[in-house]
Amino acid sequence: MKVYPFKIPKPVDEHLIVQIDKEPIFYNRLHQHEEIQISHIINGNGKLLVGDSVHQFSAGDTYVIGSNLPHIFKSIPQEKDAHMVTVFFTDKSFGSDFFMLPYFKDLKQFFFNATTGFKVITNKEIIAQQLIELQSQNRLKRFISFLELLENLSQISTEPLSSFIYSKTLSVNEGERLQEIFDFVLKNFQQSISLDEISKMAFMTPNAFCKFFKQRTNKTFFQFLIELRIEHACQLLSSKKELNINLVSDMSGFNSISNFNKKFKKLKGITPTQYQQSLLQ
């Protein structure tokens, strides 16, 4: 199935879609859709690419991904299936002016934050439970619970996922090309990747590639690559706390421990050693 843009399958008379994904890995193609997406990870971990940023995801996380925000959940295969519950809707699902009614003025913060996506930081257990319960509710109860969910999501502390607002959908050609770039980088980020190599893979000149990537992600290719490597390092430090920092640097694609420490502190605000120590407390 083509995924750029992606159409959420739904019955004609259904305005609020609750979807359960339980497979060896989550859908692993870069895609975007008109619907706002609220997803809770029940099981699974890996990397989340959204907009112009890279994050690590794991069981217990809840994310809101805004309308037309390109994203991909890249799972790490495990013995147990990856499991996620998601609700899809648009700001016009219940009528073009529904959320403009004065009753919903307190939801403005949610819709504002959703434009660049966010991760739920506080009240995680309550929001997760609300999402899980939507699966078994009848339409009326589901609608009421959905509004309560939005109210809670408007009042919590959040962590932005992206800094780039996507005002248009990617063309099929653009999506395919970005998908090929991301697939290549996700498979090879632990190795050296030159500008000439990635440009040739995308069938573009280096200058054309740099312009193409920057316009669609709001950052340079090497900024993206470094962020991906640092997030991988964080995953290693979180899952294998006994690992030596030098080994983590090598396994994350850095050829210099000093460069690794410098880039890690720039992105995370602390050194890899301090990050590792914080996990042991």
Automatic annotation (TrEMBL):
Stated name of the protein: Transcriptional regulator, AraC family
Lineage, top ranks: Bacteria, Pseudomonadati, Bacteroidota, Flavobacteriia, Flavobacteriales
GO molecular function: DNA-binding transcription factor activity; sequence-specific DNA binding
Record domain HTH araC/xylS-type: where: 179-278
Keywords: DNA-binding, Transcription, Transcription regulation
Highest taxon of source: Bacteria
Pfam family, one: Cupin_2
SMART domains reported for this sequence: HTH_ARAC
Signal peptide region: none
InterPro entries associated with the record: Cupin_2, Homeodomain-like_sf, HTH_AraC, RmlC-like_jellyroll, RmlC_Cupin_sf
